Structures are given as structure tokens and as C-alpha cells.
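Notebook, student rotation project (T.W.).
Task set for the rotation: take a protein with a known small-molecule partner, predict the structure of the complex, and write up what can be learned from the model alone. Partner molecule chosen: adenosine-5'-diphosphate. Sequence and SMILES entered below by T.W., checked by me.
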Amino acid sequence: MLHLEFYDSDQEIERRTGADIAWVFDLEGEEGFRVREENVIQDLTELQGIVLATGGGSVLSKETRNRLSARGIVVYLETPIEKQVARTQRDKRRPLLQTEEAPREVLERLAAERNPLYAEIADFTVRTDEQSARAVASQIIDQLGF
Ligand SMILES: Nc1ncnc2c1ncn2[C@@H]1O[C@H](COP(=O)(O)OP(=O)(O)O)[C@@H](O)[C@H]1O
Ligand SMILES: O=C(O)C1=C[C@@H](OP(=O)(O)O)[C@@H](O)[C@H](O)C1
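Predicted structure of the complex:
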């Protein structure tokens, strides 16, 4: 049976810094966070036999996009804005959403900038709004042909 190790770029940043993501944003701003994110993804994409969940903003880096495309099979988990709003509304750990601006507007702005970048590197896309996380995972496994 195939065994894949799971990594998450945010968790890896938190492990290396000993700080949570919100704290990294507070101390170093988004710019500092993005440098850390790029470095972590550079290291993790050197590994084999892993599943890597990246932060949603990681694709803003061209180097990261190139590394993900070159080293892995990229699955774009597509979620409509409506669902993104619902799933994040009680979560206080997302610094980009802790602003005066309405979450929906922020999410729409981020989507407009990022969706073309997700599309650019995705090997395939799975919608996450119509099914449970388990069903999404099973659909990905089917698509991969494992
Ligand atoms: N397919 C799904 N069905 C229902 N809830 C989901 C699904 N996928 C994610 N969620 C929920 O949405 C929230 C955000 O998910 P998360 O995986 O943290 O998103 P991301 O890492 O992309 O920001 C979590 O509370 C999670 O349980
Ligand atoms: O979209 C973004 O820019 C971010 C998404 C977060 O990760 P998730 O996509 O796992 O929520 C985390 O990296 C940080 O708060 C910034």
C-alpha cells in the first residue's frame, strides 16, 4: 500500500519559528511571511512521497509556482466565495481576514488575483463545496489513479 507523509506549509512555518501564523504576520508583515512560505515550500518540494497542503497565497510567488509544477501533481481545491465566507467566519487565525474590510470583499479580491494562478499550475481541479472532506480526498485518489 502506498504511504504518503502529510505536510502543511503553515504548520511547517509554525514549527520552524515557534510562532503561530498570526504572530509571524504581526512581527514581519505579509512580506516576511511570504519569504518564509517560499523557503519552506522550496525545502518541502525536495521531498518525495508526500502530500503538501500549501497556504492559499503561496501561488503568488513565481518560484513557488514553478517548484510545485515541476515537482508534484497540483490539485486545485476550488471553493465558491459563499462557502469560503461561511467556513472562515468564526476563525480568528487568518490575518488577511482580520481587517475592517468585509470578509466577502477581501475573499473576492484575493480570488480575482489568485484564481488565474491556481488555474495556471493545476493538474486537475476538485470542487470542495458539494461533498465532505473524506469524499474530496477519495475523488483526488481516484483521479490520481492510485
Ligand atoms: N469539504 C468540506 N466540507 C465541509 N467543510 C469543509 C470542507 N473542507 C473544509 N471544510 C472546513 O472549512 C474550514 C476551512 O478548511 P481548511 O482546510 O482550514 O481550509 P484552508 O486550509 O484552505 O484555509 C475548516 O473548518 C474545515 O473543516
Ligand atoms: O490565503 C492566504 O494568503 C493565507 C492563507 C493561510 O493558509 P490556508 O490557505 O491554509 O488558510 C495562511 O497561509 C495565511 O493566513 C495566508
